[in-house]
Amino acid sequence: MKIKFNWGTGIFIFITLFLLVNVFVIYKSLQQRNDLVSEEYYPQGLEYQKQIDRFANANSLKGKIAINQDAGGILISYPGDLKGRIIKGQVVFFRPSDENADFNDSIRFDTALIQYIPVDKFIAGKYIAKFFWTMDGKEYANESAFRVNK
Questions:
Q1: Sign of the alpha-carbon torsion through 105, 131, 126, 44
Q2: Is 113 exposed, middle or buried (0-12, 13-18, 19+ CB in 10 A)?
Q3: Co-location of 17 and 45 in the same domain
Q4: pLDDT per residue over 19-46, tens digit each?
Q5: Domain count across the chain
Q6: Domain span at residue 3?
């Protein structure tokens, strides 16, 4: 049996290939994870002006928060403006590609204004450290991106 290749056969082959490609794309798109950055994004959006004020307060400090890695862990250096002050706050380590790797820690530092966090709490890759603290009745916030190498 010989198949004649004419307009009808060409259109049938084109439509069949088009449908197969669409089925493949739909299948692959259903396999993708689509985690939200935050489950409670709407209330956070309403609080955004307060957050802008917190960032402005942190930017008014003379020094900046620096994050470095050594062989055993992550070193967070806080600005000298925090020395001798009562600080209450937390740092959120946010991993954009995997919400299961996120974790919180309280802000606590030694007399040299350095906080040490063991590297085994992290997995290798990019993190964003979000700092929130209260000092002298004012609220502060800061964000720093860093990469963990193992």
A1: positive
A2: middle
A3: no
A4: 999 999 999 999 987 776 677 777 877 8
A5: 2
A6: 1-32
